[in-house]
Design brief:
The complex is a heterodimer of chains A (197) and B (290). With 197 residues, chain A is of the alpha+beta class. Chain A is built from eight helices and eight strands. In chain A, the strands form two sheets. In chain A, strands 1-8-3-6 form a four-stranded antiparallel sheet. Chain A has a four-stranded antiparallel sheet with strand order 2-7-4-5. In chain A, strand 4 and strand 5 form a beta hairpin. The model of chain A has no long low-confidence stretch (mean pLDDT 95). Chain B is built from three helices and 26 strands. In chain B, the strands form six sheets. In chain B, strands 1-22-19-24-17-14-13 form a seven-stranded antiparallel sheet, with no helix packed on it. A seven-stranded antiparallel sheet of chain B has the order 2-3-4-11-6-9-12. In chain B, strands 5-10-7-8 form a four-stranded antiparallel sheet. In chain B, a hairpin with a 3-residue loop joins strand 2 and strand 3. The chains are: A alpha+beta (197), B mainly beta (290). Chains A and B meet through helix 8 of A and helix 3 of B.
Chain lengths: 197, 290
């Protein structure tokens, strides 16, 4: 299975060398997930982090009315999981499913340990990625609490430039914590300002 | 005059749906590559398929294009479309819509509302023709070409006729204006009729068997719904109709420019693709209600 993106990720973000890669290759587990299939359901204990080699996963919760609240999209090179469930072995409150046919690399604690044995710097690099993730979450909370729909949208598409072409608008509105109508208004007002016929 | 040889004849592969209204077999780039088929960079063929009646028209919602032209040829059924520049209309049977997306347009395409109510047999081609680098950021435009505006050249001895959609056939000019030399015909042959076609050797040349079966160069079978790709060797080929046939003939001069493609954007370089996504996300393609 070709995992060019995951290998590049391990080299660029994890500080591994080509030799390191060769040593850990036997431990890399990847699988194709069909659109609509679940990697995690509410009540299950999540045992892996999921790296997206190709495709699109989403992490969401269902509210009391059955409405999906999307916490995260994971496109190529992104990792998604329920960290709480992985580390504290507690039943998850979330779902992770594939919105496109997706090639997923399954990462667990064993794998992290193996990579860290091969290259001791990896643990530090991995911690930096975790800190970056937390930084991103703070920003997201702060935006949900008090930033305009327009700025939320613009920051989001900067992070995921092709997402508008891959998922329906209502999902993006759900992620941004706004109504689909509000997202339409944002996009319309941007077009009115920027479109030159 | 030298016989143009055949590279391969491809049967229609497993179909997939574009939106919920177009059930297509992809021939370009599916059976080769964009570079090989230059200037034809995408060809989706909706072979005859029966859509049941519905009051909710099926189709494809709002999506952008930049850097090329989309050519929609309706063989069976009717499609209505609208775009962010205020354009719109209906493509009826026999019509061709030649849309120059160029610097960028948002559009949507659905089965026509009235047609949807009765449903029926649907057969379409959507072809993307690449634009030369110098024209990729020109203003978008439409050529809505009604069937009656397409010149039809009768073949000798009642063998059939050639609809000249674009380019030139025996000195007769086609209805569509193009940015680079492109010939596009619907060749309609009666059973048993034979004709020859000649294009410059270096032109990328292919046939789509829209209706009926034929024999090419006296030797190779080209059954219905198959795609015939020619080598760039020789200039002339013969087509002999084994049944009444309709053949879409494509022959265009390669642009020989770099191609950077991602989804609905086809540019020359990666940076231009990033700009295309940014422009799309920030409203520079305009706005169109779903």
């Amino acid at each position: 299975m070709q995992l060019a993106k995951f290998n590049t990720y391990l080299i660029e973000k994890g500080g591994l060398t080509q030799d390191d890669l060769a040593k850990i290759e036997p431990f890399i587990k990847a699988k194709k997930i069909v659109k609509g299939d679940f990697l995690l359901k509410q009540g299950d204990i999540c045992s892996h982090f999921f790296f997206v080699e190709q495709g699109l996963l989403r992490l969401y919760a269902l509210n009391e009315d059955g409405k999906e609240n999307i916490l995260q999209f994971a496109t190529e090179n992104w990792i998604v999981s329920d960290r709480g469930s992985v580390y504290f072995k507690e039943p998850s409150s979330y779902y992770i499913d594939a919105f496109e046919d997706t090639l997923v690399v399954f990462i667990d604690e064993d794998f992290i340990d193996k990579v860290s044995q091969v290259n001791p710097n990896f643990r530090k690099k991995n911690e930096r990625l975790l800190q970056n993730h937390i930084r991103h979450l703070y920003k997201r909370i702060s935006q949900l609490l008090g930033v305009s729909a327009r700025i939320r949208y613009l920051d989001f598409v900067k992070m995921h430039p092709d997402i508008m072409l891959r998922v329906p608008q209502w999902m993006i509105a759900s992620y941004l914590g706004i109504t689909p109508e509000s997202l339409s208004r944002v996009r319309k007002s941007l077009a009115e300002e920027n479109f030159k016929a | 005059m030298k016989t143009r040889s055949i590279e391969k004849v491809s049967k229609p592969g497993t179909p997939h749906f574009v939106g919920d209204g177009f059930r297509v077999h992809n021939f370009i780039p599916g059976t080769s590559t964009m570079q090989r088929m230059d200037p034809f960079i995408m060809l989706d063929y909706n072979s005859k398929y029966n859509f049941p009646p519905t009051t909710t028209p099926k189709g494809v919602g709002v999506h952008p294009h930049r850097g090329f032209e989309t050519v929609t040829i309706a063989y069976k059924g009717r499609v209505e479309h609208g775009d962010s520049a205020g354009g719109g209309g209906v493509i009826a049977e026999g019509d061709v819509q030649w849309m120059t997306a160029a610097s960028g347009i948002l559009h949507k395409e659905f089965h026509e509302t009235e047609w949807s109510k009765t449903g029926g047999e649907f057969q379409m081609v959507q072809l993307w023709v690449n634009l030369p680098a110098k024209d990729k950021m020109s203003a978008p435009k439409y050529q809505a070409i009604a069937n009656k505006a397409i010149v039809k050249v009768a073949l000798e001895n009642g063998a059939g006729e050639v609809e000249v959609v674009a380019g030139e056939y025996n000195g007769v000019k086609g209805a569509a204006a193009t940015f680079s030399p492109v010939n596009m015909y619907n060749v309609k042959l009666k059973k048993g009729a034979k004709t020859t076609l000649t294009f410059p050797e270096h032109y990328t040349t292919a046939l789509l068997m829209v209706e009926g079966d034929a024999k090419i160069n006296g030797a190779t079978d080209a059954p219905q719904d198959h795609f015939v790709m020619f080598n760039n060797e020789g200039d002339t080929f013969t087509v002999e109709a084994l049944t009444d046939t309709v053949i879409l003939v494509l022959s265009g001069e390669p642009l020989n420019e770099p191609i950077a493609a991602h989804g609905p954007f086809v540019m020359n370089h990666q940076e231009e693709l990033i700009t295309a996504f940014n422009d799309f996300n920030t409203g520079k393609f305009g706005y169109l209600e779903d």
